[in-house]
Each structure stands twice: as structure tokens, then as C-alpha cells.
Amino acid sequence: MIEVGRLRALDAVASYGTVLAASAALHCTPSAVSQQLGKLERETGATLVEKDGRRIRLTEAGRVLAAHAAKVLAALDEAEAALAAQRDTVTGRVTIAAFATACRGLLPHALHRLAADHPDLRTGLLEGDPHHALDLLQRGHVDLAVLDDWPEAALTWPAGIATAELGLDVADLVVPTGHRLASAAGPVRRDQLIGERWIAAPPGAICYEWLMRVLPGVEPDFLVGEFETQLTLVAAGLGVAMLPRLARPTLPAGVATVAVAPRPTRRVTVAWRAASAARPALRETVAALRESWARSYG
């Protein structure tokens, strides 16, 4: 009989490509992952992995077993959720992956509420961009993900993932108070923004992808990931930025916001594996996130 922990090790290696990354996802040492793989090879009598430079890759037998491992782990997930629903108690552990703004603006209240209402529930939080968080969720390395995307750079939901929209987060143009558009009487058109010095997220970030699609031809002069840093650069008069409202609960001195037409909005979504939907802990976590959204954006 193949031991489930060894299948988890193989699944993690299939997902991340290195023993080191797999061990980080499984919260164990690299040697522990290697030992599990060695035992699995002895149990099955097959070579499952082979070295490929600094990485390892699955053999044909490894790929076959990894595909079945994913199905087994999904079935276990569903079975555990069904048992938890039978007890109707909010216990166990829920690990959440979320984008940076949600970690700062939504999760503190939601996690505090869960701790107060359900002391037997353990929670964990991992910050990550939406694409990475969705991959972690699909692979079973987190239980729930809070994600953002834009109509012009929308996420694609894999099979087996359930979602609920928390709401729409409006983005505004953020400019220095002395800027020509700071006192605009109404929303400015997007074509009025061409030629500005832009402060934006780095390439690879979903906000960067969105900006490049809605303002083709824009070449940002400053590429920084944190919205707070973008605000600081705007306040220094170095350029303009397009920031969602959830990312800027307060504005520093020297900064003004200007509405844009058509109004840019990003969707904020909570996602989980459909197989684990029956878990009371997930139900309560989603409810806490909805409450936090209403407090932040109501």
C-alpha cells in the first residue's frame, strides 16, 4: 500500500520542480522530501525522478503516478470536508493565500474575527500574487485564496475551483496636488493620460498587465510593487499612478485623486477547492472575509 505522505511529496515535486521548493510547500526539510521519494520508489519498484541540472524532473512513471496522486489527494480533501461537515464544528487549520492589498486591508479583521469566534481553528496566511496563489490553491498547498483581477487581465478558473466575488474595487488616478489634472471638474478620459510619467507595479504583476492593456504605449519610469511606495513617489512629484481604493485607505499630504472614465475596477474574489466546500471552517472563513470587505468598502 502506498503511503499518502509519499504521494504528497511526489505531488509537491511535480508542482515545484525542486526538492527545496517542495519542502517549503510541505513545511518540512529537503532531506525529508528526498527520503519520502526514495521510499516511494522502493515501494513501487520504479524510478520516479531523475536529476536535470539543479532541478529534478519526473520520469514517465513519475508523471503517471503524480497524476494519480493528485486525484487521491483531491479525494482525501473531499472526504475530510465531508467528515468536518458531519461534525459541524469549526476546527482544524485554514491557510489563506492572498494578494498584498488584501493581506493589509481585509485579512487582519477577518482573522481576528475567526480567532475570537472559533478558538479551536488555526489559521495561516501567505502573501502572493494572484497567479501563484491560484496555483497553490489548485495544488492543495493552501485552503483558500483571495485574488484580484481586472476585466482586461482576467484570471482563468481551473476545473475544480469554486469562487465567490467579494466586490469590485475602483481605481483612481493619483497625482501630485500641483498636477494639471488635480483640480479636474469631472472624470478624466484615459486618452488624457498619455504622455504622463507613470509609477506602476513591475512587469509580471497583474496590475502592470492591466495598465499596459488599458493604456497601450505607456512606459512607466518607476516600477515598484508596493502601493504605499507608489503613493510616496507621487507625493514627491515624480509621476502619476493608478491605484485601487482598497490599496489607499488614507492619502499622504501632497497627493490628490482624480476619477477616470470609463471607471477602472478590479474584481476581488475568494476561491477554494470545490472538493473541500463542505468544511465548516471554510464557510466561516468566507463569511469573515465578506464582513471584512463590507467594513473596508461598505
UniProtKB/TrEMBL annotation:
- Keyword terms, alphabetized: DNA-binding, Transcription, Transcription regulation
Record carries keyword Transcription: yes
**Entry superkingdom:** Bacteria
Matching Pfam families, A to Z? HTH_1, LysR_substrate
Q: Which GO terms describe its molecular function?
A: DNA binding; DNA-binding transcription factor activity
Instruction: State the PROSITE patterns in the record.
Output: HTH_LYSR (PS50931)
Q: What SUPFAM superfamilies does the annotation carry?
A: Periplasmic binding protein-like II, Winged helix' DNA-binding domain
Put simply, this protein is called DNA-binding transcriptional regulator, LysR family
Origin species, per record, is Asanoa hainanensis
